């Protein structure tokens, strides 16, 4: 063996134990070359090293090849990991992406330390570059192995969701739940014991030149034949947390009733809850009475009490971490995925009739003109006088005999309606955006199938609760601004210039003008909506105006609320189902000195990150809810392929038309290639497809008849054939002529290329 010069440290002796120690101490860089360099191996000694490494591999004490040896099961100090799941405490758990199951067995599952102060917000299915912190790390006091995130990488794109179909002899194939997704063949050893009809997550394998791509099943989600299977697809497709970790449930179960500390006693005030008939939790209660202050003749005192979730869900607790992760409750036709466990949402924080419950309340003083004069916030103990459904309350006000206590009608409901009459006058003066787009709801049978689609009646009872909640939300924002307390706003910016220009050009085709962007207010849109009300274009104009609006978001910056025409607006009234409201509650507790459970320093420092996370969670929930409705409707109509339906053009694109069936609220697609024997051009400004020769076509909002030619329940996809003939459309816009010219140029280019090919 080679030796160093006198005075230098001796080169370590090449022994079995020394090589094992070097491999263990240098995971990820213990190649044959590095080992030889460390032990001064040269010349003929390389043969001895080769035999030693081969012997260690055969004994199973090291694995790898000449480029990288390691101790079986060893991890590099820094590597790429994929977050696979959450443990019982709700912590994220990751596995190494590069792992040899044959040599090293199952990959280790390592908890992930998330530092939210650095804006880290990884989720299940995402990949991270992370440092492995060992239990004996002198710089870490946890005493357990974990991952410290260096950077969150892109979400794994090769993960797909589908339905496993078993094949004779083992293995199977996975049918996709998305139209653009591939079908996969699953080898017998990669099924993870999935059974026929199971909903599975599959990781794509290497592409093959011939046949379907192969894949490996990563997780079995459940049976497609089980109850709530359709919403399960959406939950997994969008990565929505839906199972509460054990530690979160245990923390919720340990919670007990709140006491009177730091609370006013409002138990004798006859507050009432007014909710949907099937509501399981009741997080808001209301009351109204004439104002006895002689300085406010004809005025009213309106009280809005909201469940005091901040008392139970404290910053940094497991309940808080889970609520922040979820961001909001998600509502499907067949189930609700709550933000908080039922012990909190349906029990301790549900304002049940006749039961003492803690609340955060705002007392609103309205003038005779309906304008809010002032307001005050209070932390109280209340007792709901009555639990009412919207229909119940409305019927009682309309004079129908029912099961509502006459005393409640006289002393609570009638004053509420009178206060609402006043506040409605103020609302009409304020002129918020007044779109008329009816909401459809699915009624399911006992098997979770669509029984019918209904359009709920829009009652004054709904509008009353909505208006008082808006007043309470405004009051919360005003109080926090006055106290110079940071908060999360619910912001809705004005429409962008590009969207307004598109809307302006569209309205011009209907001989309707739109004010300039700088002076545009919701009232200008309302004038347009009023002008088309009751006409053929009413639904069309409502749709286009809606599409021109910006998306509402959560933000620590006050951008105002364009749609409601309010200078400041926060969400305060639903902390059971929205994390933004919980933050506002904590901010009020802190700013007004109302006791425990206020906004923590970390909460304040992370308001921007929190706003972004919960805005993303809201968009995720909306997409999942929409996808579930589409799948349920497609499943409902799958047996009616070949039938014709009355529909309405709900979307126009270069590829074709989206047609909505008003009876079901479902959209289907009509490819442009199936529309007729002429070339159809897309006119973006008028939202129409126009025939090149005839000038006839189809436009957004048109009533049409279509035939259902395909229904894919798993993908939630419907395809139609157009039966209605195209109609004469108003004059074409500049964008149409440009598109038409481009189309003719493309036709000319195709003809020229065809002639060249023929000459060759």
UniProtKB/TrEMBL annotation:
UniProt key word Transmembrane helix: no
Record InterPro entries: CSD2, NA-bd_OB-fold, RNase_II/R, RNase_II/R_CS, RNase_II/RNase_R, RNase_R, RNR_Ribonuclease, S1_domain
Enzyme class at the top of the EC tree: hydrolase
One Pfam short name: CSD2
S1 motif domain boundaries: 642-723
Cellular component annotations (GO), alphabetically ordered: cytosol
Renumbered residue ranges of the record's region Disordered: 731-760
Catalytic activity reported: Exonucleolytic cleavage in the 3'- to 5'-direction to yield nucleoside 5'-phosphates
Keyword match Cytoplasm: yes
Coiled coil: 600-627
GO MF annotations in UniProt: exoribonuclease II activity; RNA binding
Localization of this protein: Cytoplasm
Record-linked HAMAP family: RNase_R
Functional note: 3'-5' exoribonuclease that releases 5'-nucleoside monophosphates and is involved in maturation of structured RNAs.
NCBIfam families, per the entry: 3_prime_RNase, RNase_R
Protein name as it appears in the record: Ribonuclease R
